[in-house]
Write a structure and sequence with these properties.
mainly alpha, 3 strands, globular, DNA-binding, HTH_HxlR
Amino acid sequence: MAGEKAEAGTESGADTNFQKMFASGDFNAANCPIRDVLDQLGDKWSTLLIMLLGGKPHRFGELRRQIPDISQRMLTQTLRDLQRDGLVHREVFPTVPPSVEYSLTPLGASLIGPLSGLIDWAAAHHGAIREAREVYASEAA
Protein backbone atom coordinates (compact mmCIF):
# COMPACT_ATOMS: atom_id res chain seq x y z
CA MET A 1 0.00 0.00 0.00
CA ALA A 2 2.33 2.63 -1.28
CA GLY A 3 -0.32 5.35 -1.07
CA GLU A 4 -0.50 4.94 2.72
CA LYS A 5 3.27 5.32 3.11
CA ALA A 6 3.31 9.05 2.36
CA GLU A 7 6.40 10.60 3.90
CA ALA A 8 6.38 14.06 5.42
CA GLY A 9 7.02 16.58 2.69
CA THR A 10 6.12 14.29 -0.21
CA GLU A 11 2.58 13.94 -1.45
CA SER A 12 3.20 10.80 -3.48
CA GLY A 13 5.04 8.88 -0.79
CA ALA A 14 8.00 8.35 -3.15
CA ASP A 15 11.36 9.07 -1.61
CA THR A 16 13.22 11.97 -3.19
CA ASN A 17 16.84 11.58 -4.23
CA PHE A 18 17.76 13.70 -1.22
CA GLN A 19 15.83 11.43 1.15
CA LYS A 20 17.53 8.38 -0.34
CA MET A 21 20.97 10.00 -0.09
CA PHE A 22 20.33 11.06 3.50
CA ALA A 23 18.97 7.65 4.52
CA SER A 24 21.91 5.81 2.93
CA GLY A 25 24.42 7.74 5.03
CA ASP A 26 25.98 9.33 1.93
CA PHE A 27 24.87 12.80 2.98
CA ASN A 28 27.75 15.21 3.51
CA ALA A 29 26.43 18.55 4.79
CA ALA A 30 29.70 20.35 4.09
CA ASN A 31 29.64 19.28 0.42
CA CYS A 32 25.90 19.12 -0.19
CA PRO A 33 25.00 19.68 -3.86
CA ILE A 34 21.49 20.71 -2.89
CA ARG A 35 22.70 23.46 -0.59
CA ASP A 36 25.26 24.58 -3.15
CA VAL A 37 22.59 25.10 -5.83
CA LEU A 38 19.79 26.36 -3.60
CA ASP A 39 22.02 28.94 -1.91
CA GLN A 40 21.97 30.83 -5.20
CA LEU A 41 18.41 30.11 -6.27
CA GLY A 42 16.99 30.78 -2.84
CA ASP A 43 18.24 34.34 -2.56
CA LYS A 44 15.93 37.32 -2.78
CA TRP A 45 16.41 38.08 -6.50
CA SER A 46 17.59 35.04 -8.48
CA THR A 47 14.25 33.29 -8.88
CA LEU A 48 12.58 36.51 -9.96
CA LEU A 49 15.29 37.21 -12.54
CA ILE A 50 15.17 33.67 -13.90
CA MET A 51 11.41 33.89 -14.33
CA LEU A 52 11.66 37.29 -16.05
CA LEU A 53 14.36 36.04 -18.41
CA GLY A 54 12.28 32.93 -19.08
CA GLY A 55 9.82 35.09 -20.98
CA LYS A 56 12.38 36.78 -23.23
CA PRO A 57 15.87 38.24 -23.19
CA HIS A 58 16.16 41.58 -21.37
CA ARG A 59 18.58 44.44 -21.34
CA PHE A 60 19.90 45.59 -17.98
CA GLY A 61 17.67 48.67 -17.89
CA GLU A 62 14.59 46.58 -18.65
CA LEU A 63 15.35 44.36 -15.69
CA ARG A 64 15.82 47.41 -13.45
CA ARG A 65 12.41 48.72 -14.50
CA GLN A 66 10.76 45.33 -13.98
CA ILE A 67 12.19 45.09 -10.45
CA PRO A 68 12.25 48.68 -9.19
CA ASP A 69 13.32 47.80 -5.63
CA ILE A 70 16.56 46.06 -6.63
CA SER A 71 19.68 48.20 -6.51
CA GLN A 72 21.93 48.45 -9.55
CA ARG A 73 24.74 46.83 -7.56
CA MET A 74 22.56 43.89 -6.46
CA LEU A 75 21.17 43.37 -9.96
CA THR A 76 24.70 43.35 -11.38
CA GLN A 77 25.93 40.89 -8.74
CA THR A 78 22.96 38.56 -9.08
CA LEU A 79 23.27 38.47 -12.87
CA ARG A 80 27.00 37.73 -12.54
CA ASP A 81 26.29 34.91 -10.08
CA LEU A 82 23.66 33.42 -12.40
CA GLN A 83 26.07 33.75 -15.32
CA ARG A 84 28.84 32.07 -13.29
CA ASP A 85 26.50 29.16 -12.54
CA GLY A 86 25.72 28.73 -16.25
CA LEU A 87 22.08 29.81 -15.94
CA VAL A 88 22.27 33.20 -17.68
CA HIS A 89 24.04 34.26 -20.87
CA ARG A 90 25.34 37.82 -21.23
CA GLU A 91 25.70 39.13 -24.77
CA VAL A 92 27.42 42.44 -25.52
CA PHE A 93 26.43 44.17 -28.76
CA PRO A 94 29.01 46.40 -30.50
CA THR A 95 27.02 49.62 -30.35
CA VAL A 96 27.97 53.01 -28.96
CA PRO A 97 27.53 52.85 -26.07
CA PRO A 98 27.71 49.04 -25.89
CA SER A 99 24.38 47.39 -25.14
CA VAL A 100 24.11 44.20 -23.14
CA GLU A 101 21.34 41.64 -23.24
CA TYR A 102 20.73 38.83 -20.76
CA SER A 103 18.99 35.57 -21.60
CA LEU A 104 18.63 32.14 -20.08
CA THR A 105 20.94 29.36 -21.14
CA PRO A 106 19.40 25.94 -21.79
CA LEU A 107 20.36 25.03 -18.21
CA GLY A 108 18.63 28.14 -16.90
CA ALA A 109 15.55 27.46 -19.05
CA SER A 110 15.33 23.98 -17.52
CA LEU A 111 14.52 25.68 -14.20
CA ILE A 112 11.34 27.35 -15.45
CA GLY A 113 9.14 24.28 -14.88
CA PRO A 114 10.31 23.50 -11.33
CA LEU A 115 10.33 27.17 -10.34
CA SER A 116 6.83 27.67 -11.78
CA GLY A 117 5.58 24.90 -9.51
CA LEU A 118 7.19 26.51 -6.48
CA ILE A 119 5.84 29.94 -7.43
CA ASP A 120 2.34 28.53 -7.91
CA TRP A 121 2.59 26.85 -4.50
CA ALA A 122 3.76 30.08 -2.86
CA ALA A 123 0.92 32.07 -4.43
CA ALA A 124 -1.67 29.49 -3.39
CA HIS A 125 -0.42 29.29 0.21
CA HIS A 126 0.72 32.86 0.84
CA GLY A 127 -2.42 33.73 2.81
CA ALA A 128 -2.06 30.70 5.07
CA ILE A 129 1.61 31.44 5.69
CA ARG A 130 0.90 35.09 6.55
CA GLU A 131 -1.84 33.96 8.91
CA ALA A 132 0.49 31.45 10.59
CA ARG A 133 3.08 34.20 11.05
CA GLU A 134 0.51 36.45 12.69
CA VAL A 135 -0.57 33.66 15.04
CA TYR A 136 3.06 32.92 15.90
CA ALA A 137 3.80 36.60 16.54
CA SER A 138 0.77 37.02 18.79
CA GLU A 139 1.63 33.88 20.77
CA ALA A 140 5.27 34.94 21.12
CA ALA A 141 4.28 38.37 22.48
